[in-house]
Amino acid sequence: MTKCPACLVGFAQGDFPMLAEHLVERADESDPDHVRWLNQNLSRRKTAAASLLPGLTELFALPDGSLPRWVKTRFIAKFFGKVPHPFVEALQHPTRATLLGYVFEHQHFLRQWVRSCAFIMARTDRPEVIRYELDNLTTEYGGYGPDRPSHYELLLRMGESLGVDRSVVLGTPPLPATRRSIEQWNEMATREHWVSVLTAMHGLELIANRNLVDDGASVHYFDPAILQGQEITSAAQAFLREGYEADVGHSDEALALSDRFARELGVVEEVQSVFLRSIDLFDDYLVGRLERSGRFA
Amino acid sequence: MKRNYDGCAICDSTWGNVWAEVEGERMFFCCDLCVVQFRGLIDRIKQETGWDRIDAIEIAGDRRGRVCVAESAGDRARFGFAFTPEGQLLRFSRGTASSA
Questions:
Q1: Euclidean distance between the first and final Cα of chain B, in Å?
Q2: What is the pTM for the complete model shown?
Q3: B4 — contact with chain A (CB < 8 Å)?
Q4: Contacts of B14 in chain A (CB under 8 A)
Q5: What is the CB-side half-sphere exposure of residue A44 using CA atoms within 13 A?
Q6: Fewer beta carbons below 10 Å: N end or C end of chain A?
């Protein structure tokens, strides 16, 4: 099945002409998500559906037939291009405000993360996927005991090191950008194929994949130099270091599983569209972190 | 209000079909979100400058960050800005008109 990358409505596999018609129709209705997708991915100039086909076909084409490479290429283009995402720029040498924006919004993201991964486990019958998710959830949320706290716990400790008690963080509702993104990730997790959800969620862990510069990323998620010295608190270093060390394995292993099962189950095209939707949501969510940061500046 | 875009007043897209009145003029926008953005921008420029009207606005850039040069009764001012996903100003700063 092919899906619309703006709203995830489905079409017959390979039916890009129908997808192009749909995009034009929804844009004619001035739907912001469809207009945005066309503006950012194909063209800002209105055109006939047939004229969109070459660009659409090219966008979905897998380089050397590799789904992981396609995922990385799209991710780099969106977050690590010549002008990186503004949150990535802010995180290179983060201020207290930037890190607090991260803490307040990310606790909501991680709580949704658990639910999305739980849906993958509930729907897959592949033991290797279950094992992968169990390990991921333990690292991200459960922790491996006092010596290896979870990423969630390290996030809250980072907030405390910056002078904000965890009760304040946990009692603060998400900003609208975060709320909308996590609601849509939740809906995605409940409705979409588990291979799509696997790719859409764990593909986001590419954000901290330090090897992405070898694939063309203009910068790392943050300047690795901040993990040394006293530019940021040691709790902030511990939080960022954990992702820096874990997310290479998390994202690469997930993409290998995605590549294998998307092909085996014949769902490559829908996996691609769901991933494209997910990175648009992630883009908005990262702006939400910046918006929150502005309240501490 | 004189503009440099022939498409949507904020992003120059020619998709969509929203017409909204801003500063007494009916303008084309690609979606409602851009209407919110443009109205918020105009209000903020007027608030910043004390102008009661804007005669011309020239916008450049993309969603990551835009700059504009606004004119009113012969005065010019330059601003940098970006929006939240809801169309509110995420950042707004004043520069020098000559640097535009």
A1: 19
A2: 0.96
A3: no
A4: 44-46
A5: 15
A6: C
- The tokens describing A198, both together, are 């696997």
Residues of chain B with Cβ-Cβ distance to A86 below 8 Å are: 64-65, 82
User: Chain A contact for B20, CB < 8 A?
Assistant: no
Q: What is the number of structural domains in chain B?
A: 1
* Non-local CB neighbours of A225 within 8 Å, separated by 6+ positions: A231
> What are A103-151's pLDDT values in tens digits?
999 999 999 999 999 999 999 999 999 999 999 999 999 999 999 999 9
What domains are there in chain A, each with its CATH number?
Answer: 1-61 (no CATH), 64-293 (1.20.910.10)
Alpha-carbon distance A120 to A195, whole Å?
8
Q: What would the DSSP string read from start to end of A36-58? A: HHHHHHT-SS---HHHHHHHHHH
Q: Would the ipTM clear 0.90, i.e. be above it?
A: yes
Counting Cβ atoms within 10 Å, is residue A296 exposed (0-12), middle (13-18) or buried (19+)? middle
Cα separation, A269 vs A193, in Å, equals 11
First to last CA, chain A: 46
Retrieve residue A203's tokens.
């593909």
Condensed to tens digits (0 to 9), the pLDDT of residues B3-46 reads: 999 999 999 999 999 999 999 999 999 999 999 999 999 999 99
Using an 8 Å Cβ cutoff, are B25 and B57 in contact? no
